[in-house]
Amino acid sequence: MKKEILYSGKAKTIYKTDKQKELIADFRDSLTAFDGKKKNEVKRKGYFNAQISKKIFEMLEESGIKTHFIKMVSDTEMLVDAVEIIKIEVIPRNIAAGSITKKYPIKPGTQFQEPVIVMDFKSDEYADPMINEDIAVAMNLATREEIDQLKNMALKINKILVDYLGTKNLLLPDFKLEFGRVDGNIVVADEISCDTCRLWDKETGDSLDKDLFRFDKGDLSKAYEEVARRIVPEIF
User: Fold this and answer.
1) What is the spatial distance between Cα 142 and Cα 34, in angstroms, rounded to a whole number?
2) 30-33 and 22-27: which strand pairing?
3) Which pTM was predicted?
4) DSSP E strands, 9-106
5) Average pLDDT, stretch 214-219?
């Protein structure tokens, strides 16, 4: 089923298949931060992210939110719909952390009264700058109707994940969503995992996400395994 490489990104390799509208996303153990300036390999990282993403995609589908997920074809390989990626990263923020505390006078750890939706232009060349709706439309990234849909989907997904992860003793300060078009419909694409979510232990406040690698704060492999044990205990 798997054919030649279509694209190799920072953490996944995308392969063509014998069906034009289906691809295979292979989750690798590669790890990058700061626009690829910091790199490493972490054992089983790809496996944990693939299994966590599978679980979350299935949960979203059950809630009526369409994703590009079809099925797993191995422990780290996901069969997905081929999508036309919308070059807008949508970031729901629930607790102030990371860049928003550096760009604005917002104290780290501030709990927002309602989720803050941030949009970034998905571009390594321009370092993923924050954009607004007018800029997105001017660049022909999406229509205003599509942007409204992206925001509404992001808010629904955020509510589902905050509630679900809360039952796993996890806080979700913020996370990144990517979307794509399939036959004119917008679906959730890429992955939702420890690589794309900021996750804190609800009791200790400890980071269980890529910040451990970004800022040399601890053992990332153990953290990802701990999150996997809470979300997909059946794989152990």
Assistant:
1) 26
2) unpaired
3) 0.96
4) 12-17, 22-27, 30-33, 38-41, 69-72, 77-81, 84-95
5) 91
